[in-house]
Amino acid sequence: MTLTTGESTAVSATALHAATRQAISHAAKDLWPDQQIMLGQECPSVTSYVCRLTVDGEELIAKYSWLGMSLVSILRGAGGTWSQVQEAESAYVHSADLLTAREARNLALLRELGRPRVCETAGFHRGVLLTRAVPGETLADEMTARPGETSALLDSALAALEELHGHQGAKLLRDSEPIDERSVAGVFRRKFNGLSADTYLGTLGQGRGLQEGERLEVVELVRHTVWRLLRMSSGLSPRRDTAVYGDLKPEHVFFDGPRLHFIDPALQWAAGPEPDIAKLAGRSLLLALGHPDRRATQQMVQGIASFLARNTTASAGRQRAERLREVLVLWLMDTVNILTTCLSAPAGLPLAPHQQTLVNQAWPVAALVDRVSALLVGSMAGPRLLDVVLGEVEHRAGSYR
Prior knowledge:
This protein is an alpha+beta fold. The chain is 53% helix and 12% strand. Helix 11 crosses helix 13 (317-344) and helix 15 packs antiparallel against helix 16 (382-397).
């Protein structure tokens, strides 16, 4: 990924916001010409543009993608000047690679599969995906409110994906196009494999309120972690025979009593369910470390540790060790991905509360991924490695205040 940070080429957040809302408004009016449409507030996102709207009183969620890139990349100039972005977007919304079109197909395939239960599609037009709002509380909210039940809550979310991770899920995915833009390893390699990676890392945190000394320490810790993970990335399994949800974040799972609903799928191929396990556990860990109550943080970390232990040690021998290592490497990659994205977000892009918390805790998170990546470079493996890694997480969780 190449980011241009100069003011002469960076895209205006105000212009992007206005153009996106206009695109969403036009699409909704085309779909429902005789109904009253009201656009609501933007939902903070660093990837696609998301906002709420009502159509004759019914609440819908609208999503729009700019060139398949993150909003951070677009605003930082990765797609060129604003005029260049607009010109390229005109072709992109009619292309077969359109991200929101693939997501609409993903939702249709998951509804055909039947489990997990996903949000309903209300319409798709001009690159705008409109889905119906899902009832209930998110997994993130449930864990925050009931930290002692973290392990069981995570288990229920993963259990709902069993059919997707099985034969029927793989069969269905063959009829669709994967959303590789959301692949943990793919995002990591795009960000850090190019010649501009070092320059990108050097600018992390600028304008995000960090003291300069702290910011420079974060940059060095992340840089060391990235170097190690790039070397380890070649060890990830090349197999591609399992369908995974692809963007399994705690805020993408809703509990409506005993019913679970999932939003924002990014179906893709993997060697096994490791990407889903890694992202679910890693993003939950970031929520735990951001909890204002230290006891709740400890309970959540312990629950995540139990969840990881159960879901990475079920296999035997070498296969178990390889699965564990893959989950840990993907967890670190995903944490570095979201940390660096939030740290590089321009001031004009609103961050969700948990993303701002991550920015505020950039140093301890960077120190954690640096330490765990160093452990993975060593010869330790299997359950012993997991115990040491989780011990490191629990030890550092106490210093996040």
